[in-house]
Amino acid sequence: MARHVAVVTDSTAYLPPELLEKHHITAVPLTVVLDGEALEEGTEISAPALAEALRKHRPVTTSRPSPETFAATYRALAESQPALDGIVSLHLSAEVSGTYDAAVLAARDAPVPVRVVDTGMVAMALGFCALAAAETAEAGGTPDDAVAAAEKRAEGTAAYFYVDTLDYLRRGGRIGAAQALFGSALAVKPLLELADGRIGMLEKVRTASRAIARLEEIAVEHSADGRVDMAVHHLAAPERADQLAQRLRERVPGLADLHVSEVGAVIGAHTGPGLLGVVLSRR
Questions:
Q1: How many Å apart are CA 187 and CA 164, to the nearest integer?
Q2: 208 CB contacts (<8 Å, ≥6 apart)?
Q3: 197 in Cβ contact with 94 (< 8 Å)
Q4: What per-residue confidence (pLDDT) applies to 76?
């Protein structure tokens, strides 16, 4: 069947490959710069390789896709789908990346109309928005319908994260060196939240076990009413993630879909190995 609306997102959505394929979502990769070498997130550098580099204190930075990369993506979609009425391009928060700006520049000269959306989201919080847009497009919706579906999903989505140490946040400029040293001395384990497009401090908890238990409680508390999709993210902590996912399956009556996935460099470079996150998205 001819598709009239194409959906594009970026690699920070961390959507499982089978969902990208099933819903015909195109994910444009961000770039990871490791020891001066530019690598595509998700294809040229794996999450385990990233985690190992971070443990060894090797310099890791990230950069947005170029406008030319987006332009090539839009052209390829238009050429491969002659019936296309438009493209909906959904991206991580403009507060943390220039990806949205690059997509806007590319959209100006695209061969079909492109709606570029700053979702204000990261990780599967962005992924759920992309899924909502794709499902709307599959049902025959217009580009405007797909954008509206994504924006509605974003309004009902929240994300919370646990990190093992404040050191990676310090390296990324998210907190000061004195605060990181003080937190390490007291064994403080930070809980972070996505708010207003940024990842910021929510609570500080003593000990890892208490912090992970608190992360679970927050997820359960915010999933009390209605149907909700969830994602559990991690970096180099698969057992923790699987255990948390199992407990959430048992404790959230309205749970619909639950995805477990490892984050890439854009989140991982600022949080470090041991990251555990929960994304809640109301249907």
A1: 9
A2: 164, 189
A3: yes
A4: 98
The rounded Cα 257 to chain-centroid distance in angstroms is 17
How many whole angstroms separate alpha carbon 42 and alpha carbon 32? Answer: 9
Q: At residue 151, what are phi and psi to the nearest 5 degrees?
A: -65, -35
Tell me whether strands 25-28 and 5-10 are parallel, antiparallel or unpaired. Answer: parallel
Q: Kindly tell me if the per-residue pLDDT of 22 is higher than 80.
A: yes
What is the side-by-side strand order in the sheet with 37-40? 37-40, 31-34, 60-63
Residue 258, phi-psi category: left (phi > 0), alpha (psi -120 to 50), beta (remainder): beta
In this structure, are residues 239 and 248 in contact, taking their beta carbons and an 8 Å threshold? Answer: no
Task: Specify the residue for token string 């209605």.
Answer: 226
DSSP state of 225: S
Question: What pTM did the predictor assign?
Answer: 0.91
Pairing, β 86-91 against β 5-10: parallel
Report the distance separating Cα 31 and Cα 201, nearest Å. 26
pLDDT tens-place string over residues 75-93: 999 999 999 999 999 999 9
Residue-wise pLDDT for 161-183, tens only, equals 998 876 666 565 545 444 444 44
